[in-house]
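Need a sequence for this fold. Nothing fancy.
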């Protein structure tokens, strides 16, 4: 038993007063004449015995009355030693997509929210921390609406970052107990890695569904194209390969096709949809299953690509370039240096310097400005080039030509991992018809090699948006024009001059989209979805605008790019699928972590630690009983 005001126990000194009265027996006697001596002796003995018992009983009642009142005013209570210490509580509520897992008629996260709201009093104060939001310390009643409206997110904080955010929500008061409650399925989150500095107690409540089944649409890509059809392949995975569901393909709200993937023993499968080539499709692949909801939709788009403008300058042969840069995808032009329309240069996406022997200084300045403004430059050197002119142009790119080497050399190396050749080859080609050159140039400084000679020196190198061949490609010097490498190499350079939007982008992963248009000052592009709109980061160039994506958008779906109020192309975004797979077993919790089997145990532990049972009422009742006992004694005993 503990006392709220122990200093009031000095009041027990008042017990001396009834004791002194009892010992001194301050009672006056009166003489009474009586004639019967024998009867008097008998009455005197009985009266003395009765009086002595009554005095002791009255003394006991009065002592008990005083003691009970003194203790009652000291306010006794029962509680743990630190029950009266102030507590600050931060609750981490995991709202990642894996907490969408069904549990009864609700989800894991909503079940945790309901139990907290039902079992904790409205005046309970805490701070709330989620994967994407945080709320400073306030009453549970004030947090009710945010908790009930809490959505899910793809963000998954790591344990150290989570601990840092939690510490920022605690006050700096050194005299409080700081409790950190973690409610999560701990899918990829290990509380053992949390730095507990500044945290007094760490409590975890692991949540896992009793039965888990999920079918996820993982990814989609274009398997092949023809003049009439585009074959879209969709990959799915399921926890139970025996429970399959059909996939539905939509263009906007219009159902185009259905297909049921065949699942293997590992739960993975594929479905193929054939789409008309050349059609603009704002697509979505959907499935209905009983598991997680966020991975039941995969959005994609097929837009009509804009024509890429390519301008070839110089006396080099250009017939093979015209055959590669066809009219359906490119707007190809060529001219000599003397007939060049330099005023039209800034509107081009790719400029090819085609075996120009010497480059005039004004042209060098124009090409340098062209590169700075986001243009792409491909340099095919002349066999008899003017070295200072070329190095003057190349100095801003970090490349330089050292000199010419006469002698046959074969092109044998392909950098399959280079971004230029991404998705160009189905596999690494080891043996092919190696092209050769009769003379080439060595470099004093080079970028990243794309194609290499057999001696390891570069045949095609890239630095930023500038590509440099190290040999002339005319028939007298090289047979590269007859090589199977020429088409994928030049086509990839042309396509990368204005990168076409991916089939879709993954939310949270850095990505870029280049638009073939430019806005004036103080004007921006917006992306609008059905119920969400955002403004991405933007970089303006002379002939295009680059949109940069990161954490935005926050929702998946098909978005339309708007220039003011004029709609443009469509861009698709999907959530990452990391949480679609079954969660690994729960981590081993270290000794400083208190694990609770359910919410009732977590809340009950808190209530027991903070419960204070007041006892002063019982002592008041005891004092009243002593008063009643004294009254009875006064009435009954003589």
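Here you go.
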């Amino acid at each position: 038993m503990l006392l709220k005001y122990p200093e009031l126990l000095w009041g027990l000194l008042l017990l001396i007063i009834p004791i002194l009265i009892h010992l001194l027996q301050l009672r006056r006697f009166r003489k009474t004449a009586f004639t019967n001596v024998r009867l008097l002796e008998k009455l005197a003995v009985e009266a003395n015995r009765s009086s002595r018992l009554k005095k002791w009983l009255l003394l006991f009642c009065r002592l008990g009355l005083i003691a009970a009142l003194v203790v009652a005013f000291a306010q006794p209570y029962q509680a743990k030693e630190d029950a009266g210490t102030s507590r600050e509580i931060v609750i981490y509520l995991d709202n990642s997509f894996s907490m969408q897992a069904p549990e009864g008629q609700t989800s894991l996260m909503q079940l945790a929210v309901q139990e907290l709201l039902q079992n904790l009093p409205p005046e309970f104060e805490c701070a709330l921390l989620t994967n994407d939001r945080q709320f400073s310390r306030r009453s549970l009643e004030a947090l009710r609406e945010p908790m009930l409206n809490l959505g899910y997110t793809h963000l998954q904080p790591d344990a150290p970052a989570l601990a840092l955010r939690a510490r920022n929500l605690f006050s700096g008061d050194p005299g409080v107990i700081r409790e950190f409650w973690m409610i999560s399925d701990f899918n990829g989150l290990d509380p053992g890695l949390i730095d507990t500095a500044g945290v007094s107690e760490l409590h975890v409540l692991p949540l896992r569904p009793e039965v888990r089944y999920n079918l996820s649409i993982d990814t989609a890509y274009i398997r092949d194209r023809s003049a009439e059809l585009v074959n879209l392949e969709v990959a799915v995975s399921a926890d139970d390969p025996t429970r399959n569901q059909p996939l539905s393909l939509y263009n906007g709200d219009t159902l185009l096709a259905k297909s049921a993937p065949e699942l293997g023993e590992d739960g993975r499968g594929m479905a193929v949809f054939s789409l008309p080539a050349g059609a603009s499709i704002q697509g979505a692949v959907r499935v209905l299953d009983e598991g997680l909801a966020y991975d039941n939709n995969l959005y994609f788009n097929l837009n009509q690509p804009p024509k890429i403008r390519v301008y070839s300058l110089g006396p080099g042969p250009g017939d093979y370039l015209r055959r590669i840069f066809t009219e359906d995808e490119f707007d190809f032009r060529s001219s000599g240096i003397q007939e060049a329309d330099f005023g039209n240069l800034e509107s081009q996406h790719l400029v090819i310097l085609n075996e120009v022997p010497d480059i005039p200084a004004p042209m060098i300045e124009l090409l340098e400005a062209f590169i700075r403004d986001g243009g792409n430059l491909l340099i095919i050197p002349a066999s008899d080039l003017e070295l200072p002119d070329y190095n003057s142009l190349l100095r801003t790119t970090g490349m330089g030509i050292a000199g010419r080497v006469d002698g046959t050399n074969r092109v044998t190396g392909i950098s399959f991992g280079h971004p230029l050749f991404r998705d160009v080859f189905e596999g690494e080609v080891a043996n092919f018809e190696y092209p050769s050159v009769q003379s080439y140039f060595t470099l004093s400084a080079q970028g990243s090699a794309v194609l290499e000679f057999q001696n390891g020196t570069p045949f095609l190198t890239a630095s930023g948006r500038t590509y440099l061949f190290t040999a002339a490609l005319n028939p007298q010097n090289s047979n590269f024009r007859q090589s199977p490498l020429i088409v994928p190499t030049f086509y990839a350079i042309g396509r990368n001059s204005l990168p076409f939007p991916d089939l879709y982008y993954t939310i949270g992963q850095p990505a870029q989209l280049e638009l073939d248009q430019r806005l004036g000052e103080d004007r921006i592009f917006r992306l609008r979805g059905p119920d969400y709109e955002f403004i991405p980061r933007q970089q303006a160039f002379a002939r295009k605008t680059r949109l940069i994506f990161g954490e935005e958008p926050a929702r998946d779906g098909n978005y339309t790019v708007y220039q003011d109020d004029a709609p443009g192309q469509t861009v698709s975004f999907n959530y990452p699928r990391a949480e679609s797979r079954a969660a690994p077993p729960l981590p081993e919790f270290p000794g400083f972590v208190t694990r609770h089997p359910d919410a009732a145990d977590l809340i009950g532990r808190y209530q027991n630690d903070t419960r204070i049972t007041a006892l002063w009422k019982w002592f008041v009742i005891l004092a009243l009983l002593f008063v009643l006992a004294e009254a009875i004694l006064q009435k009954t005993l003589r």
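For context: The radius of gyration is 43 Å.
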